[in-house]
Write a structure and sequence with these properties.
Length: 120
């Protein structure tokens, strides 16, 4: 069973995405911000995929992506955000993001992208 680490400061967003992924057979771990997610990763959590919001308190998604890349060189990381500007997207790619999803993302769209990045 593939595992996903979801990182978002919105409890509603976490609950919605977690439900969509679990129904499709994924094991899902969650974190409320980048700092909490990084603590989980440095404690040994090794998800098959990370999906992170960009704008969060304590540690934003770009910082999380940069730090997670030091621990998980080849794990796909998707940035999930309301930001659709090209410069933010390019910055996320420079930090090591595999892809970009713009909120709100529907369950079927999310699963399509998740399955694409996990079968690469």
């Amino acid at each position: 069973m593939k595992s996903v680490l979801l990182v978002d400061d919105s409890a509603t967003m976490l609950m919605s995405l977690k439900g969509s992924l679990e129904i499709s057979g994924f094991r899902v771990e969650t974190a409320p911000d980048g700092a909490a997610a990084l603590r989980r990763l440095t404690s040994g959590l090794r998800p098959d995929l990370i999906i992170t919001d960009i704008n969060m308190p304590h540690m934003d998604g770009l910082s999380l992506i940069r730090e997670a890349r030091k621990l998980l060189r080849f794990t796909p990381i998707l940035a999930l955000t309301t930001e659709s500007q090209r410069d933010k997207r390019d910055e996320a790619k420079r930090h090591g993001a595999t892809g970009w999803l713009v909120k709100p993302v529907g369950g079927s769209d999310l699963l399509k992208v998740v399955n694409q990045v996990l079968t690469r």
